[in-house]
Amino acid sequence: MTKLSWTGFSKKTPQERIQFIKEHLPIASATSYRLKEQELLSLTTANQMTENVISRMALPFSVVPDVLVDGQHYHLPYVTEEPSVVAAASFAASIIKRSGGFQTSLHNRQMIGQVVLYNVPHMQKAQAAIAAETKALLAIANEAYPSIVKRGGGAKMLTQEEKGDFLIVYVTVDTKEAMGANMVNTMMEALAPRLEELTGAPSLMAILSNYATEALVTATCTLELRFLSRNQQEAVTLADKIARASQLAQVDPYRASTHNKGIFNGIDAIVLATGNDWRAIEAGAHAYAARDGQYRGLATWDYLPNKACLKGSLTLPMPIATKGGSIGLNPSVKTAHDLLGNPDAKTLASIIVAIGLAQNFAALKALVSTGIQAGHMKLQARSLAMLAGAKEAEIPQLVTELLQAKHMNLATAQAILKTLKK
Ligand code: HMG
Q1: Whether residue 87 has its Cβ less than 6 Å from ligand 1
Q2: Euclidean distance between the first and final Cα of the chain, in Å?
Q3: Cβ(363) to ligand 1 under 6 A?
Q4: pTM greater than 0.90 (yes/no)
């Protein structure tokens, strides 16, 4: 698999891409069938997943091939509606691969739940009572969800903090392969009555926190300058400007927000494809971006002239799941996990953070060189052509003319199409 060449994959038709995947990747025959038949979520299953269902909504399902993470080659399922995101990730992953790929580390993988008490009659006594019963409280949490304990997980640690008028009890839970929202919520709700008894204070709420600071993942990569550009001086300029762009995202929240949006172009695409809760991942990461009181860029790049390289790093909470939720229900989600080689939750978390870093690199490189519009608009032109109502056969000519037009917009696309049709 390592020597497999993906060059030209983007030029193939969807059917040829499926054939390529079937021939070259060790995917199960069920996956191959699902890809060939384009089997999607059925209305019956959709109706069981959420409420008031009347239909399903489809989005493009793409592949970002050959991403090298911790010495392994992965082919990433990407679900996104935005042109140039897949191209940018593929481009970045391919040049980072030539420099040795991504290295990742997991700081931990546990979720945090909280029970919030208010109107605490005696703060010190309440805290002492909770501290004295820590073991028993953890046991109550675990009894509320015995199946996770059987799998080696469960509630592991209990701490408490006085914040404003509240006494907040935090519990860290090892959720194994699941994201664990239901599990943690069940545990917290089971704890609340005993905490109320112990403290004489009512519980305001008992809920999982999406600020998953016990599930941090770091991805790094070291890009040799020669892969940035064949021209040595140009490579140095690019590296210097990318590092400056990274510094800018540390000091200006207006830029940091866009910097992080670019990272989530990639992260959301794979989180969505793998059936995970992207709102939870986004919420946790944006809270982490503001952890010292100012919202900052999540990915950073340092230019190291003495080593002729550019070093990238991205750390964020990544409480991703490979089991539970809608993961077993949606056929496209099963296909996504198969394409990845069915990694466990920790490996999937590493892959996701790595591609976030790649996505940021591609965006910064484009921003500080050609500008984002050149690459983005080249690919946006196809969407505009289709929006204008072009038939498949008319698209190539319309795209060529659109790219040469002074104003690339829908009105121009419609005007060109009108002339083409004459
Ligand atoms: P290029 O140098 O013109 O690309 O860059 P190329 O045609 O020379 O191809 C190089 C490689 O890129 C290809 O290798 C592919 O891997 C990939 P090959 O397969 O040929 O050996 N590639 C493609 N893959 C799939 N389909 C395609 C395709 N084209 C190239 N059609 C490129 C072109 C778009 C890659 C570059 O301009 C780029 O990376 N631009 C950045 C685009 C971007 O970040 N878009 C995200 C949307 S903008 C946004 O929302 C976020 C932002 O605001 C965030 C921020 O501000 O930080 C930008």
Answers
A1: yes
A2: 49
A3: yes
A4: yes
